[in-house]
Amino acid sequence: MTERQRERVDSAVGRTVHGDEATVAGALDDLFARTGADELLASTSTFDLDALRESDTRLAALWTRRPR
User: Whose CA is closest to 58, among 31, 20, 17, 29?
Assistant: First the structure.
């Protein structure tokens, strides 16, 4: 990988939210506090459809529990 490619990958990863539920909840709380956003667009990439469903379900649960 070239240095430029590495920089692009690092930049993209730096804008992602990932981790366990507590980490994701904290990161989303920070994001909403900084931006004032009232909606969320999530994008995932996996060939495992069961894992994708589980991830979406867990994210939806975090979203519905967050304070408004």
Answer: 20
Answer whether 28's CB lies under 8 Å from 67's CB. Answer: no
Q: What is the number of other CB atoms lying within 10 angstroms of the CB of residue 40?
A: 14
Q: What is the DSSP letter of 66?
A: S
Q: Does 67 have pLDDT greater than 80?
A: no
The per-residue b/e assignment along 6-25, b for 16 or more CB within 10 angstroms, e otherwise, is eeeeeeeeeeeeeeeeeebb
What is the average pLDDT value for the chain, to the nearest integer? Answer: 89
pLDDT band at 35 (very low <50, low <70, confident <90, very high): very high
